[in-house]
Amino acid sequence: MVIEGDCGTSAEEHTVNAEITSWGDGVDACVGKMTWTMNLDSPNGFVNLGTTFIEAYLLLDKPATMYGDGVPAEVLRFLTQKARVLRATTPEDVAVAVTNYTHTDHRLRYHTEGGAPSYEAGRFGGSDFSVVDYALRKHNVVNCYDQAAAVQSLSGAVGPVITWIYMGPYGYINPTKLIGVKGLCNNPFFEISVPPDPPRVDRNDPCRRAFGNHAFCSLSSKIFDACAGPKRGTETKAEYIANAIDHITTLNIGKPYPGTEADANERPGVTSTNTGCSV
After folding, report:
1. pLDDT on residue 1
2. Are 92 and 220 in contact (CB under 8 A)?
């Protein structure tokens, strides 16, 4: 990274109007000691002015609108140091990296006792998602609202605008990797029972429980779901619904399940974030 500007040489304090003249491609981070020099255009040539600490980030675009007061440094550190968005050059690259990390590597687990959120996310998103607490993993248990909010707001921190999709009714899920649950799962609320039911049961087992509703994300008409799957933008909405939901089980009889594409609609999503950190 190179920052350049013109500076006077008289013996007084100077303000330099400088600009970044060289940086890498895609999302990038420059963190550490930066060396400053002055070119005097004289026999003295370059003079070393010492070093200062710098923490700067290159984004794909302006942050999404939920960051009205700017993106917290904790979020940018999370994205570049953990979520592997460095060198991402497209919104899709960012969404895939965020979805992969938040589903698989962030060490979170689905709330299998009832599906409650932990980070102030609601079914339609909301105005108080605790994005810094999420990045710092203040709570270990999440639901689909938390995960959709994470994909939308964390991706949005470096520019991509991600759409929130709320689907209700939803239905019984086909065997999938539910976040934090070992093995495949088609019975997401298996710990409601005492003793717990298995996370994967027969398709028509009466102990099997469904998602009453579900939240996930969309970008360029492709679906991203960091709660179950994960879904990394390879399916349209219709393909996602066909693949994720069990349309065959006899447990659907007499239920509002399964939902259809008409039940999966765009919602406001995360409109603003709580960028503080809880103790």
Report:
1. 86
2. yes
